[in-house]
C-alpha cells in the first residue's frame, strides 16, 4: 500500500477497541540510501561523520507504521492524533551500509485524562540482533476507554537556559515532509493547518527531536536512550532556544520559545 492510500484509509471510522492490535508490519533487507540520508542531515542539522544519526531509523519504519495505523484494527483515526512522546533506543551505532530488517507493531492502549493513547513500536534488526527501537506515543482526544490503567504522565519540566537560538523558516515543515514522507497538513502551511485548529503551520515533532539530538552531537553515548516529551506546538515560522545540561547519569535538554515557554523536554540515559 502506498503512502497516499494509507493516509486515505486512515480517515475511515474505527470500531471500538479495548486492546492494541496484534498486526505486525515488516520490511526486510532494507538498505539506507546515502543520498536520502544526506538530505535528512541537511534538514535536521546533523553531521555525517560516522554512524547514522540516532533518530534517522525512524524514517525506515514510517511507511510500515502508516500502513499499521491505517488498518481497520488500529483503534484511532489518523486525523487529530497528537504525538505526545518519542523514545529512541540505540543499542549500538547503526552504519550506513548495513542491511536491516524493520518491524512495526502497536502496544499499550491506555486511558488518558484527555482521551486515550497508544504506542507504535519500530524495531530495527541487523543480522538478527535488535540494534534500534523507537516508541511513538499518540493521543486521540476522540476515543474514551473504560479502563483503570492510565497512560503515564509527562514529568514536570523547567526550561534550561538557551545555549543556541534557531530561526525556523515557514517552509521547514514542507522540507521535512519531503524527506520523511510525513505530509500531515498541519506541517505544510498556515492555510492547510487552520482547519485543524492551528493559526500557523507547526514543525514535525520528529524534526524537533532530531534537531535537538543533532545539537548534542559528540556528547551522545554510543549506546543510549533518548526520551522526548512534546509540550507545545513549534510554530512556523518561528524562533526557538535550545538548552542542555550534562549530568553524571543523564543529559537533559529543552526547547523553548522567546517567551521562555517550554515546547519540548528530553533526556538521554543508558538503555534500559
TrEMBL record:
InterPro entries, per this entry?
Answer: HotDog_dom_sf, MaoC-like_dom
Query: What Gene3D superfamilies is this protein classified in?
Result: Hotdog Thioesterase
Q: Where in the numbering of this chain does the MaoC-like domain appear?
A: 174-241
Instruction: State a single Pfam family of this protein.
Output: MaoC_dehydratas
- The lineage's top-level taxon is Bacteria
Which family, according to UniProt?
Answer: Belongs to the enoyl-CoA hydratase/isomerase family.
Quote the PANTHER family the UniProt record gives: 3-HYDROXYACYL-THIOESTER DEHYDRATASE HTDX-RELATED, 3-HYDROXYACYL-THIOESTER DEHYDRATASE X
In its UniProt entry, what is this protein called?
A: MaoC-like domain-containing protein
Organism the protein comes from: Actinocatenispora thailandica
Q: What is the lineage of its organism?
A: Bacteria, Bacillati, Actinomycetota, Actinomycetes, Micromonosporales
Amino acid at each position: 500500500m502506498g503512502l497516499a492510500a494509507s493516509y486515505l484509509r486512515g480517515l475511515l471510522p474505527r470500531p471500538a477497541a479495548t486492546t492494541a492490535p496484534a498486526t505486525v508490519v515488516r520490511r526486510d533487507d532494507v538498505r539506507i540510501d546515502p543520498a536520502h540520508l544526506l538530505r535528512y542531515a541537511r534538514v535536521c542539522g546533523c553531521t555525517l561523520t560516522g554512524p547514522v544519526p540516532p533518530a534517522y531509523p525512524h524514517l525506515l519504519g514510517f511507511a510500515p507504521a502508516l500502513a499499521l495505523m491505517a488498518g481497520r484494527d488500529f483503534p484511532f483515526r489518523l486525523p487529530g492524533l497528537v504525538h505526545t512522546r518519542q523514545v529512541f533506543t540505540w543499542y549500538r551505532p547503526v552504519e550506513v551500509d548495513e542491511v536491516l530488517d524493520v518491524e512495526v507493531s502497536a502496544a499499550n492502549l491506555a486511558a488518558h485524562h484527555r482521551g486515550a493513547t497508544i504506542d507504535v513500536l519500530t524495531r530495527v534488526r541487523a543480522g538478527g540482533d535488535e540494534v534500534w527501537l523507537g516508541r511513538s506515543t499518540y493521543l486521540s482526544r476522540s476515543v474514551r476507554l473504560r479502563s483503570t490503567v492510565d497512560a503515564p504522565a509527562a514529568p514536570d519540566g523547567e526550561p534550561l537556559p538557551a545555549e543556541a537560538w534557531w530561526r525556523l523558516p515557514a517552509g521547514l515543515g514542507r522540507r521535512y515532509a519531503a524527506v520523511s514522507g510525513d505530509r500531515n497538513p498541519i506541517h505544510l502551511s498556515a492555510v492547510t493547518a487552520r482547519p485543524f485548529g492551528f493559526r500557523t503551520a507547526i514543525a514535525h515533532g520528529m524534526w524537533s527531536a532530531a534537531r535537538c539530538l543533532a545539537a548534542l552531537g559528540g556528547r551522545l553515548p554510543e549506546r543510549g536512550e533518548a526520551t522526548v516529551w512534546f509540550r507545545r506546538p513549534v510554530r512556523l515560522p518561528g524562533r526557538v532556544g535550545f538548552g542542555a545540561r550534562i549530568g553524571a547519569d543523564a543529559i537533559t535538554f529543552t526547547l523553548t520559545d522567546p517567551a521562555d515557554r517550554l515546547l519540548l523536554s528530553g533526556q538521554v540515559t543508558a538503555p534500559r
